[in-house]
Write a structure and sequence with these properties.
The complex is a heterodimer of chains A (370) and B (170). By secondary structure, chain A is mainly alpha-helical. Chain A has twelve helices and two strands. A two-stranded antiparallel sheet of chain A has the order 1-2. The radius of gyration of chain A is 22 Å and the shape is globular. In chain B, helix 1 packs antiparallel against helix 2 and helix 2 runs antiparallel to helix 3. Chain B has three domains: 81 residues, Four Helix Bundle (Hemerythrin (Met), subunit A), CATH 1.20.120.1200; 28 residues; 46 residues. The model of chain B has no long low-confidence stretch (mean pLDDT 80). Chain B has 170 residues and is mainly α. The chains are: A mainly alpha (370), B mainly alpha (170). The interface between A and B is medium-sized, with 26 and 21 residues.
Amino acid sequence: MQFVFFTLLKIACVLGPLLTLVAYAVLAERKVSALIQDRVGPNRVNLPLIGSIPVLGPFLTKLGFWHPLVDGVKSFIKEDFTPAHVRKIYFWLAPAISLVPAFLVVAVIPFGSTLGAQKMVIADLNVGILYTFGIVSLGVYGIVLAGYAANSKFPFLGGIRASAQMISYEIAMGMSVIPVFLVVGDLNLGKIIEHQAQNGWNAFPVFGGGFGLQQLLLIPCGVISFVIFFISALAETNRLPFDMAESESELVSGYHTEYSSMKFGMFFIGEYANMFAGAAMMTTLFLGGWTLPILGLNVAPAEGEWFKGLLHIGIFMGKMLGFMFIFMWIRWMLPRFRYDQLMDLGWRRMIPLALANIILTAAVLALTNR
Amino acid sequence: MALPDILFYLFAFLTLLFGALAVANPFSRNPVTSAMFLVLTICAMAGLFVLLNAFFLAAVQILVYAGAVMVLFLFVIMLLDLKEEQRRKINLFGIVTGTGAVLGLGFLLTRTIWGGDLNQAANPRVIGDTKALGLELFTKGQFLLPFEIVSVLLLVAMVGVILLSKKELK
């Protein structure tokens, strides 16, 4: 009974903030783009009562703090238009299918160490990472079905492009984490973090348990895995420079051209939730999750150390938000790839490189005698 | 009935239901719909694997079949001319051969299950994680490795098709 209660509590405590973060990620995206393009960004919405508080009110307005709120209200009250030519069932299903996997992924991610006696992860699976890949691979259905449901040419092309792109990059992504498994020797995400706390982060295994030949030789392996995973994550979440499924200049707006109102909003939420899931995965796999190698923060707190437990959650969030910022930065800095370039990069560069990296890591581990 | 039993019957029922709908859907002759029901069948089967403690197999089932193979299926189906497929009526030849195949396979399965000793179940405490699977694959004596190598035949077939379908060889 207690297990059920705490699990439900954890689900609520993860999904609530995640949805809020998604809403504010949209605002952050607009602010970051404004920063990069030397504009001001959203700074208009003012709430009646809070807006009249002397310094705080105008400050929050200037930050655009209320924009996510009104954006949400706007998407709900806009007309939900269903064009006559769409395939109705798929048209309704697709936004939901694109939203659900993004939220399911979060279930296995350890977002903190422990609070009291509770581990800060919803489901501590022993095949954690494979579960994540399985669920992520289902995410493509939302986009493909949206393209199919629209029953017109541009969305359809978007859907087809998405399916080819996501399958291609899933292979590279899956292969890029195999070196991590080889080094850690476990699929459980909690164990992966533990290992990193002792031996240094997978992306850059230098600090931690001594600096030996093995650590030195594993640095290139870790860096290559991390870079491949990062690029694949951009492609999997359909972010620029890989947003071929939307690609406004060619496909109007790709797979969600025919969608309006909250159905479009759900695709939008799905995209940002996927970004958060990707950022959380990278944090966990490569940047040591909730650990920091200073101030004794790389061990789980003892019973009763609430502050440390909360601090760990904070560290995790900080790393994750850092990745989110880099995602946004890249989006506004780089132009879109051409489709053939995208496929070329995936199949002819990244997959061979990832394969070579697996062999390299295995060789290093075998030669340095573990 | 304990919870695992209830879940078993639920997933088994869903697997059969979705499987039937994938093959003979009375509401729609759309190949995309059939493919989507096949995806649901695969997901329900993954649920059965979880109940057998085979977490690795369950995850791989979703990852490989639902997430990759079926997406490729969908990809191909969408590129084909779907309208013609929808108009096609089920003909007598299809009914006879289809029913024949199902009956034959059903007979074989029933005979195997009847002949076997059901009480001699596999050890339920074994957790089917990666380590167990790896040992099974690469330990001498068990040696499922030849079985894995046979799957390379698929790759050979694929390379062959690509070679044959190429118009001009360089």
